[in-house]
Amino acid sequence: MVHELKHAVLARQTADDLARQRFVLALKRELTGRIRPGNQLLFEARVRPAMQRRLRSRSGADREEIKRGLLAEPAYQAWAALTRCSQEMMWATVTEPLMRDRERIEAEARRLLGGAQRLGGLDLPAGFEPPAAMREHHVHLQPQGYAHTRDADDVMAGALYEAGGNLYSMGQGMGGDDSKGFAAIRWIKWHRPGFAPRRILDMGCSAGAGSVPYAQEFPDAEVHAIDIGAAMLRYASARAESLGARVFFHQMDCGATGFPDGYFDLVVSHNLFHEVSNETRNATFRETFRLLAPGGLALHQDVAIQNAARTPFEQAERAYDVYYNDEPFWENYADADIVRELVAAGFAPGAAREIQLGKINGPGHWFAAVAEKPAAAPAARS
Ligand SMILES: C[S@@+](CC[C@H](N)C(=O)[O-])C[C@H]1O[C@@H](n2cnc3c(N)ncnc32)[C@H](O)[C@@H]1O
Question: What integer pLDDT is reported at residue 379 of this predicted model?
């Protein structure tokens, strides 16, 4: 709404659609920016004193006790209920225009994907089963989830992801121009001046908003992007074609991709790991190591919610997303020691580290883990 890259598979919106979206955005900003900080005051004024009375022998309280304390407070319940409502309203406001414009959007996607002038590609292998977690959970309440695919023309999972994602990120205080892909690319070009990757892989690409910048910024590279949903990928591919970007999309699991060993000079992901299980995250790190060519670089960017740097209250308060936003893996990711896991996946100690990526147009930073393979790679450690 406020800012979107214009392309052929965006929904046409009326003034009423935009007015509804602006209302939801304002509500979300109020809930996140002005009301949510009150949870800390609630904890200090009511939850902690009650816990200290109950647990006389201990001065502190752990995350699980704090969660129970917060969940019992009417003020926290009211904030959580309103936040849940605002998320449901957000999806309603973007779903309506998409459903109204669905036939035209699907026809545009068919045209873009069937054209003789195609720049990139789309590979949807018959019989691919999306992981159960992605079929069963509707992460951040996206209607019918990321994996949903109605038929061979469907692009709605991708269309919803892009439309909802734009509003969602702005409701969280990010600027309309924020791009995780450009933030990562800016760091990569600073870290490795003159780096010219031959092949780049973007894992968990969703609608391809993070993949397209790699094709634009590394025009000589072959850019591949993977995800698990056919409708998601069909949309991503049509969107990239409409933007003039050459990206090859594949329906693949990031934990077992099927690309040959050492195929990529650059492997990236954006906001993937807080949405997958511990098993998938660790399989993906092993896959990253296997797929990188000697001298290759991996950059896995995600939300900066690492629990190691947070108080028990901050950890407990963020559990909102697990309970009410269908983010089952949020806490697993926040608890993980990503650098240790990358080393266990094969990277040499010292070759993997955490960095902060400044946002392009918003407050704060993204978390990223980077890992590099030496130019002459030793064999994978068993
Ligand atoms: C938050 S979205 C990623 C956003 C996207 N990278 C971007 O920058 O716009 C997470 C994506 O990971 C995908 N995903 C989840 N599990 C996956 C798996 N095992 N393999 C590949 N993709 C997966 C989901 O379908 C979803 O599209």
Answer: 59
- Ligand 1 centroid to Cα of residue 250, in Å, is 12
- Which atom of ligand 1 lies at the shortest distance from residue 207's CA? 9
Please choose from 124, 174, 228, 247 the residue to mutate so as to test ligand 1's pocket, defined by most ligand atoms within 8 A of CB.
228
2 versus 248: which is more confidently predicted?
248
Substitution candidate for ligand 1 out of 275, 303, 330 with most atoms within 8 A of CB: 275
Sign, CA dihedral 124-125-130-131, equals: negative
What pLDDT sits at residue 2?
A: 38
Ligand 1 centre to CA of 208 (Å) is: 10
**Does residue 60 contact residue 312 with C-beta atoms inside 8 Å?**
yes
Helix count (H) and strand count (E) of the chain? 16, 8
Which residues are near ligand 1 (CB < 6 Å)?
131, 134, 146, 180, 204-206, 209-210, 226-229, 232, 253-255, 270-272, 275-276, 280
pLDDT tens, residue by residue, 27-83:
999 999 999 999 999 999 999 999 888 776 555 568 999 999 999 999 999 999 999
CA dihedral sign of residues 244, 250, 253, 257: negative
pLDDT in tens, 182-231: 999 999 999 999 999 999 999 999 999 999 999 999 999 999 999 999 99
How is the chain split among helix, strand and coil, in percent rounded to 5? Answer: 50, 15, 35
The predicted pLDDT at position 1 comes to 36
Dist CA 372 CA 293 (whole Å): 10
Single-letter code of the amino acid located at 222: E
Which helix (DSSP H) or strand (DSSP E) does residue 367 occupy?
A: strand 365-372
Average pLDDT, the chain: 92
Q: From the CA of 253, give the closest atom in ligand 1.
A: 20
Residue 123: Cβ within 10 Å count: 15
Please give the average per-residue pLDDT across 264-291, as a whole number. Answer: 98
DSSP tag of 221:
S
Q: Yes or no: is domain 171-372 CATH 3.40.50.150?
A: yes
Which residue's CA is minimally distant from atom 26 of ligand 1?
206
Three-class secondary structure of residue 122 per DSSP: strand
What is the whole-number distance in angstroms between the Cα of residue 75 and the centre of ligand 1?
A: 34
The pLDDT value recorded for residue 279 is 98
pTM of structure: 0.94
